[in-house]
């Protein structure tokens, strides 16, 4: 109860007062910390659990690996991976996927791929590995892996794929995958549109970016301030005052107290003004 209410101190107090703690009790406390932005404490509880000779299960390792990924220290993750092997939990789907995600978060995509290749892969596993490549800008590997999928991709898959294409500046490929997603019957979300707008803005295709934003209502998706700010920032980068003014108006409509649009428009003005004759 306390964990769900985010009262971590109260949860810890109740935990410490319990006598005869069992595996469920330890797992609950580890999970509370791992998913409550306190990953170091999650590892501490896990270590204390080992000192009490409580044998971990797949639930334990799923939470502990999430904590290791949040911390981002590869040494911690490798140590827990060693424990996974000792207790023969590497064949459990949630643990194997947790290892892939942990290694990716720690920047070791090679280790992540090694685990991925030896596991029984479901959609979550494919998505996790593609996301790992996208996170670190490995566009070619993400795209290659996508084409090897033996399960039907979902909206999560396409977010990572479009993100990867964005890192690589692959405009044509991004449009192809965006349209493929629609053909598969996957409804685009704000994340998909955000990836596309970010890429189109980055490469200076402002007309396409603006048209895409305006088309979002047809997909029952409302353009939020984040998307308009992406576009506005692209207008600043490419010195387009006309489109920047329209984007700024939309940001102010959604967030009237935000000073960001005024700052960006001022920057566009300062960079596009003609120099005075000498």
Automatic annotation (TrEMBL):
<feature type="repeat" description="PPR">
    <location>
        <begin position="22"/>
        <end position="56"/>
    </location>
</feature>
<dbReference type="InterPro" id="IPR046960">
    <property type="entry name" value="PPR_At4g14850-like_plant"/>
</dbReference>
<keyword id="KW-0677">Repeat</keyword>
<dbReference type="Pfam" id="PF13041">
    <property type="entry name" value="PPR_2"/>
</dbReference>
<protein>
    <recommendedName>
        <fullName>Pentacotripeptide-repeat region of PRORP domain-containing protein</fullName>
    </recommendedName>
</protein>
<dbReference type="GO" id="GO:0005737">
    <property type="term" value="C:cytoplasm"/>
</dbReference>
<dbReference type="GO" id="GO:0003723">
    <property type="term" value="F:RNA binding"/>
</dbReference>
<dbReference type="InterPro" id="IPR002885">
    <property type="entry name" value="PPR_rpt"/>
</dbReference>
<dbReference type="Pfam" id="PF01535">
    <property type="entry name" value="PPR"/>
</dbReference>
<feature type="repeat" description="PPR">
    <location>
        <begin position="122"/>
        <end position="152"/>
    </location>
</feature>
<dbReference type="GO" id="GO:0016556">
    <property type="term" value="P:mRNA modification"/>
</dbReference>
<dbReference type="InterPro" id="IPR011990">
    <property type="entry name" value="TPR-like_helical_dom_sf"/>
</dbReference>
<feature type="repeat" description="PPR">
    <location>
        <begin position="154"/>
        <end position="188"/>
    </location>
</feature>
